[in-house]
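Type-5 uracil-DNA glycosylase, pasting as requested.
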Amino acid sequence: MGADPPVSSSAFSSPVLPGSGWPGDAATAGTPIAADGEDVMAIAADAVTITDLAAAISVCRACPRLVAWREEVAITKRAAFADQAYWGRPVPGFGDPRAHLLIVGLAPAANGANRTGRMFTGDRSGDWLYAALHRLGAANQPASVDAGDGLRLSGVRITAPVHCAPPANSPTGAERHTCAPWLDRELALLPDVRAIVALGGIGWDATLSALARNGFAIPRPKPKFGHGARVDVANPGGRVLAVFGCYHVSQQNTFTGRLTEPMLDDVLGRALAI
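Structure tokens follow.
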């Protein structure tokens, strides 16, 4: 795949084209575009840097249902954001390229990251996550409203196993499988990571599966997800990672009190301490 000519950005119908100047957009008109699962595997494997990977993720078109949905939302928009431009593309990971903590969510929100172009930015879930990281000294500001608001993370990177906003916040198994090589490669390109916080059961399963594909030994039976759960895994080279489970920062959890600020701070704080 790396030897093939790039696909032109004219293939896009989403409002924001590669190279259009959106804050944080690493893609150009020459960035290769994945059209199916085989392309995803090949292009992900070819990524040499985190920036290369982010660019390739941001132009992926491998899952027709997700492409149609994210672009439809970007055109129709939520009434509260009717005057705003929407990103409408896959959302790559965000944060410190030398991160020692990786946070793995689920997928972009249709009117959150799908609008802003940055993970956990512009919605209530992000309000909770970035406020917690700010309290713990890992973010320079407690809130994030758009991709150009100056937010910086120190020692932390945030990603997801699915990079497109899915209908009803529910990607299919096939879509999760197609997107998996992006997470696999992101883990491989983050050699300084020592701890991972997986938000929710899907994030937990995706993280352990990606670690297994990267050569880490996962205990059997597979450790169960739970808030505050921890499992340490190692690869043949002796690299050890601590994986923590945390309830997702969704409104379903934060509004009901299932996840409180002290609970979130506790898990993130233990992971940061590593």
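Note for the archive: The two ends are 38 Å apart (CA to CA).
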